[in-house]
């Protein structure tokens, strides 16, 4: 049975990846998960310089999900290249390095260094809801890249011109027309898209009257967002020809299959890792069992087969 899928020129042994920010730098999960069995590992987003992240509290549980406002806490590009990347390269699966920046210069700086370090694939996080962006739209207002077609185009184009490997652009669900943003990323040279990042949301402690997060708002993830994420994957797949990695509340293989039938070539497991650190392994097994049960010899045969 063939479980392997392709994201541009990147061959994954199976479609199951772990989502940025929910799996650390992978070694934290080494005792629980056979890391090399994953289709790919998407690392926690890194930025040019270290970031302390937002003040705490920055996590809150919600019905069927969680809110986070971590704010891209990370030790910066140089530390990643020295301390994390060599370990990741030894794992034996594909490593997708997630990067973010609030201006084009920082994106270009990061991507050139990653290219020189032999990184095969980059996920361009244009969609973190918990940081401030430098304006890139026509009015030069502060805007999240992935909330603006032109800003998305400019960011993807700048990175594309400086990176030969597989370029994946991560989209935000906090938009009116996600298909149009996906198309913009494709036109600027992205090899694949990943979606969705978290939904901007808020929770209030009724006893104190204060927001549960110090940042006031955060990003909602988990099963609560899944049907919206599936709809968005379906929509984006109708707008673009490049492969899509689907995510948003995938807890088990049935959920993963839903995304693939909607059109996703691969999936990412995020919040589920906090509930069941072995979720990704269970999902790989569940996909195999499904193929056996349905007598499917190649997982690619189910992609985008939703019957309308
Ligand atoms: C605690 C936490 C931290 C996250 N950090 C990042 C990040 O650094 N970069 C990123 O692109 N997405 C980040 N995400 C978003 C996830 O990668 C994913 O897009 C989102 O959570 C939806 O998937 P899920 O519902 O399976 O978690 C984070 C999510 C959570 C819950």
3D structure, described in words:
Helices cover 30% and strands 19% of the residues. By secondary structure, the protein is α/β, with parallel strands linked by helices. It has one domain: TIM Barrel (Alpha-Beta Barrel). An 8-stranded parallel barrel has the order 3-4-7-8-9-10-15-16, surrounded by 6 helices. A hairpin with a 4-residue loop joins strand 12 (204-205) and strand 13. The mean pLDDT is 95. The structure holds flavin mononucleotide. Flavin mononucleotide is lined by residues 19-22, 44-45, 66, 68, 70, 72, 98, 125, 128, 170, 197-198, 221-222, 225, 247-250, 270-272.
List the helices and strands and how they pair.
Layout: E1 5-7, E2 10-12, E3 16-18, E4 40-42, E5 59-62, E6 65-68, H1 77-89, E7 94-99, H2 104-116, E8 121-125, H3 149-160, E9 166-170, H4 178-187, E10 192-195, E11 199-201, E12 204-205, E13 210-211, E14 218-221, H5 226-239, E15 244-246, H6 253-262, E16 266-269, H7 272-275, H8 279-293
Parallel strand pairs: 3-4, 3-16, 4-7, 7-8, 8-9, 9-10, 10-15, 15-16
Antiparallel strand pairs: 1-2, 5-6, 6-14, 11-14, 12-13
The structure holds flavin mononucleotide.
Flavin mononucleotide binds at residues 19-22, 44-45, 66, 68, 70, 72, 98, 125, 128, 170, 197-198, 221-222, 225, 247-250, 270-272.
**Order of strands in the sheet with most strands:** 3-4-7-8-9-10-15-16
Gross geometry: globular
The major beta sheet can be summarized as: 8 strands, parallel, barrel
Number of strands: 16
Q: If classified by CATH, what would the architecture be?
A: Alpha-Beta Barrel
Low-confidence stretches: none
Any idea what the CATH superfamily is called? Answer: Aldolase class I
Summed up, the helix count is 8
Query: Averaged pLDDT, please?
Result: 95
Number of domains: 1
Helix percent reads 25-40%
Strand content: 15-25%
Distance between the first and last residues' Cα: 27 Å
Ions, cofactors and other bound molecules: flavin mononucleotide
The CATH topology turns out to be TIM Barrel
Order of helices and strands: EEEEEEHEHEHEHEEEEEHEHEHH
Secondary structural class: alpha/beta
The CATH class turns out to be Alpha Beta
């Amino acid at each position: 049975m063939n479980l392997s899928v392709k994201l541009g020129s990147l061959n994954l042994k199976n479609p199951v990846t772990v989502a940025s920010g929910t799996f650390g730098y992978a070694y934290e999960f080494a005792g629980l998960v056979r890391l090399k069995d994953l289709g790919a590992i998407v690392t926690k987003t890194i930025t040019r310089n270290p970031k302390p992240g937002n003040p705490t509290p920055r996590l809150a549980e919600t019905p069927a999900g969680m809110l986070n406002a971590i704010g891209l806490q990370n030790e910066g590009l140089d530390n990643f290249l020295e301390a994390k990347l060599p370990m990741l390269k030894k794992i034996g699966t594909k490593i997708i390095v997630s990067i973010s920046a609030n201006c084009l210069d920082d994106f270009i700086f990061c991507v050139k260094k990653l290219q020189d370090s032999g990184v095969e694939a980059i996920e361009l996080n244009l969609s973190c809801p918990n940081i401030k962006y430098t304006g890139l739209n026509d009015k030069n207002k502060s805007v999240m890249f992935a909330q603006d077609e032109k800003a998305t185009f400019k960011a993807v184009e700048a990175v594309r011109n400086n990176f030969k490997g597989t370029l994946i652009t991560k989209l935000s669900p906090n938009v009116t027309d996600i298909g149009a943003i996906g198309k913009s990323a494709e036109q600027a040279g992205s090899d694949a898209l990943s979606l969705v990042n978290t939904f901007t949301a808020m929770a209030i402690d009724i006893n104190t009257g204060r927001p549960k997060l110090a940042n006031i708002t955060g990003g909602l993830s988990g099963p609560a967002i899944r049907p919206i994420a599936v709809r968005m994957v379906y929509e984006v797949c109708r707008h673009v020809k490049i492969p899509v990695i689907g995510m948003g509340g995938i807890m088990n293989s049935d959920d993963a299959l839903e995304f693939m039938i909607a059109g996703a070539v691969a999936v990412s497991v995020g919040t589920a890792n906090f509930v069941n650190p072995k979720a990704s392994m269970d999902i790989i097994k569940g996909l195999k069992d499904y193929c056996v049960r349905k007598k499917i010899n190649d997982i690619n045969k189910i992609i985008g087969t939703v019957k309308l």
